[in-house]
Specification:
- The protein has 337 residues and is of the alpha/beta class.
- It contains 14 helices and twelve strands.
- Strands 2-1-3-4-5-11 form a six-stranded parallel β-sheet, with helices on both faces.
- Strand 3, helix 8 and strand 4 form a beta-alpha-beta unit.
- Helix 6 runs parallel beside helix 14.
- The radius of gyration is 25 Å and the shape is elongated.
- The termini are far apart.
């Protein structure tokens, strides 16, 4: 049985580099005041010995944990079924990894989970939080504020209009993107344009509904049905729309998953897309938009870049200098409209 090789110590690095233990500690912990030649000697000794800093001890010195909490205000069944979250998490993970930070994923299934997340964030385990998919009645913002840690939100929080407050968030131009989608349908000559919303306790869904209304004006209320950003919600809403208004000739769906459900129902009812009913989604998630039948015209937002930017703003401490960052969207034309 092989013996366990002891881990190199700070003292061993100091001896190898020919410097004091305090100098090694300053270099390893990112402190100032060490001349560059000594820094290079310490780094070379660290590499030669394979020294790995004790993270717990380092945290006591630096008061940093090099860990960021990513809080998704959704149950795991939703998070792992929706590619939107995978894309955003990938962007966040890439940026954190580039800066040697760990990602700690926290999901919320119910009120007990909110309290658990609040306790964890207040416990000094992480240096900040990235929070997205908030709902309007969500207690998380209050819990995070009481925890007193730097925070960047994904999506405009419901209490912020993007001006005059210190809330830092990254969002897409949901309202402008929705206007582009509906204008495109109108330009195609469609006059009975319906909208399947997302869950209206989330600002992204509200903003997309407002963009639809910007173009359609005082629209027949029967043409708007609330969905929940899922394929099943799109199917349910599409059936309701066909029952209410069988003469609809276009649908703007709040996201691509919703649109995929709507397309299935239209096909079941023998409606040709786009011949009878044109359909547009929102997100441009390629595994969905390119594989629907027909391929989906949609509004593209750079979901992965949103995640990267959230992480970048948090790591740079941008909360003192800015509030909302809104990324542009673009219309991507395919065969459904």
């Amino acid at each position: 049985m092989s013996e366990t090789v002891p881990r190199p110590t700070l003292e061993a690095v100091a001896a190898r580099a020919g410097v004091s233990r305090a100098t090694v500690s300053r270099v390893v912990n990112g402190g100032d005041g060490v001349r560059e030649p000594l820094v290079e000697r310490v780094r070379r000794a660290v590499e030669e010995l394979g020294y790995v800093p004790n993270q717990a001890a380092r945290s006591l010195v630096t008061r940093r944990h090099d860990a960021i909490a990513v809080v998704v205000a959704e149950p795991e069944t939703r998070v792992f079924a929706d590619p939107f979250f995978a894309l955003q998490l990938r962007g966040i993970s890439k940026e954190l990894t580039a800066h040697d930070n760990q990602l700690v994923l926290l999901l919320t299934e119910g009120r007990d989970d909110h309290a658990r997340v609040g306790r964890y964030l207040a416990g000094g385990h992480v240096d900040g939080a990235l929070v997205f998919s908030l709902h309007l009645d969500d207690p998380l913002p209050g819990l995070i504020q009481r925890a007193g840690i730097p925070t960047v939100f994904g999506g405009r929080p419901g209490w912020s209009d993007g001006t005059g407050d210190d809330v830092v968030y990254v969002d897409s131009d949901n309202r402008g993107g929705a206007r582009d989608a509906v204008r495109h349908l109108v330009d195609l000559g469609r006059s009975r344009v319906a909208h399947i919303t997302g869950a209206l306790d989330q600002t992204s869904a509200v903003d997309r509904l407002e963009g639809y209304r910007d173009v359609m004006g005082d629209v027949d209320p029967r043409l708007v049905v609330e969905g929940d950003f899922t394929p099943a919600g799109g199917e349910r809403a599409m059936r309701e729309l066909l029952d209410r208004c069988p003469d609809i000739d276009a649908v703007f769906a709040a996201n691509d998953l919703t649109a995929s459900g709507a397309l299935r129902v239209l096909r079941e009812h023998g409606r040709r897309v786009p011949g009878d009913v044109a359909v547009i989604g929102f997100d441009d998630m390629l595994p969905i938009a390119e594989q629907t039948d027909p391929p989906l015209t949609t509004i593209s937002q750079d979901i992965e870049e949103m995640g990267r930017l959230m992480a970048r703003l948090l790591l740079k401490g941008a909360g003192d200098t800015m509030s909302g960052v809104v990324l542009p969207t673009t219309l991507v034309r395919r065969e459904s409209a």
